[in-house]
Specification:
single chain, 111 residues, four-stranded antiparallel β-sheet
Length: 111
């Protein structure tokens, strides 16, 4: 079964860091651009960051620029999101995306 599985979410204090991982299984995603999105209850899912298949190009939402870093390891079929200087407003369920969505991982930042 082809799937994306996120991990690394949790509870962190404002100013802290977390590293999310998204492991793809079932087939390789090395030819796909991959991205991270997030959603809070009652709001639409929003773009956070994306990375090209080669890792040569990345793109970020203005709200996370300078704080978040997306990377990938195609040999491990995994994409990462390093989140630093976390803010209360970063609290959300974070989803990995390629040609499908992962199930999401909860990130909660306490103020």
């Amino acid at each position: 079964q082809v799937q994306l599985v996120e991990s690394g979410g949790g509870l962190v204090q404002s100013g802290g860091s977390l590293r999310l991982s998204c492991a793809a299984s079932g087939r390789t995603f090395s030819n796909y651009a991959m991205g991270w999105f997030r959603q809070v209850p009652g709001k639409e899912r929003e773009f956070v960051a994306a990375i090209r298949w080669s890792g040569s190009s990345t793109n970020y939402a203005d709200s996370v620029k300078g704080r978040f870093t997306i990377s990938r390891d195609n040999a491990k079929n995994t994409v990462y999101l390093q989140m630093n200087s976390l803010k209360f407003e970063d609290t959300a369920v974070y989803y990995c995306a390629a040609d499908r969505w992962g199930l999401g991982t909860q990130v909660t930042v306490s103020s």
